[in-house]
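Priority: medium. Attachment 1 of 2:
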């Protein structure tokens, strides 16, 4: 949303109008893809706005910063405080995006000016999309027509660690998703360098086998999704077995159900893969139960998981 006069961004300790938080086209963060970020959801609750699993998101952000090697100055507590301040300053925000970036214009890959700026932006991302088009854009469909990545790109942990949420890590996912979209699919499922199932561009992947066990690719090759760990905890609370193991594409084609998970997607049931229907019904019963329980947990309606929410008006 151009201008967005109602919004402010927390930038290095100050609240700054949205339109003033800009970087140069030649900045290191843009030229080298070195921007590290994390993205968390904000929910309206009877106790005011609440951030979902703030502590886990900030811890993952710091892990990404470490993997990329940025000399960040802020402590974990200051970063949590930045997110809380950003939500307080922007009523109606639906998400918080926390960013660490090198704003200076640089020549070499190692910047001479190594100041890492931190920006916490709390906003409603749909406002921006709506403002760009005359017709309101279609929200993502409730179920996914998935395409399995065919052309393996460089997604190797020794090139760029999958645990790092850094801008440069999204280029091969962008390429793959664009291929899928051009073919009429909603989403792509990426494979790793061995052709094993990995994750979506911004989601993790689960299948439910014919015995009702949940299976998901192991931690080493995927981003450690906060929704992924939440769904594992919720499934176990439901008495369901969850196995983290390498999965071949055949396992997907034979699954009873499958779904993607992510901060924006929630639990997103997969209706078909490469045009073939998956399972007998979408959403299947397990996806439906977990999706509903996840929504209740994020809204603060599940007492067993109330500790997952940070109520910004009550935080110190
Ligand atoms: N994988 C990747 C590569 C992602 O970017 C995301 C989105 N952060 C996820 C998985 C899902 O993570 P989360 O549940 O924390 O949103």
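Attachment 2 of 2:
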């Amino acid at each position: 949303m151009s201008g967005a006069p109602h919004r402010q961004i927390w930038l290095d300790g100050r609240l700054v109008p949205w339109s003033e938080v800009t970087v140069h086209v030649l900045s290191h963060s843009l030229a080298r893809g070195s921007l590290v970020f994390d993205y968390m959801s904000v929910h309206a609750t009877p106790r005011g706005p609440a951030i979902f699993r703030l502590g886990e998101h900030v811890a993952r952000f710091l892990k990404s910063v470490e993997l990329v090697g940025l000399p960040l100055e802020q402590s974990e507590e200051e970063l949590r405080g930045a997110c809380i301040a950003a939500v307080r300053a922007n009523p109606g925000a639906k998400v918080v995006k926390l960013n660490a970036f090198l704003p200076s214009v640089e020549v070499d890959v190692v910047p001479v000016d190594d100041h890492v700026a931190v920006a916490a932006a709390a906003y409603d991302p749909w406002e921006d999309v709506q403002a760009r088009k005359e017709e309101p854009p279609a929200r993502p469909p409730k179920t996914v027509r998935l395409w399995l990545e065919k052309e393996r790109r460089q997604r190797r942990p020794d090139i760029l660690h999958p645990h790092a949420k850094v801008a440069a890590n999204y280029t091969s996912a962008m390429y793959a998703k664009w291929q899928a979209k051009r073919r009429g699919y909603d989403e792509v499922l990426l494979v790793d360098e061995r052709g094993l199932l990995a994750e979506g561009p911004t989601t993790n992947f689960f299948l439910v086998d014919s015995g009702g066990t949940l299976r998901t690719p192991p931690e080493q090759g995927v981003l450690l999704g906060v929704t992924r760990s939440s769904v594992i905890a919720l499934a176990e609370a439901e008495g369901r077995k969850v196995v983290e193991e390498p999965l071949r594409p055949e396992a997907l084609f034979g699954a009873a159900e499958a779904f993607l998970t992510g901060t924006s997607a929630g639990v997103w049931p997969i209706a078909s893969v490469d045009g073939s229907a998956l399972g007998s019904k979408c959403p299947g019963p397990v996806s439906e139960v977990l999706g509903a329980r996840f929504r209740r947990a994020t809204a603060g309606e599940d007492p067993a998981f109330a500790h997952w929410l940070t109520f910004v008006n009550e935080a110190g």
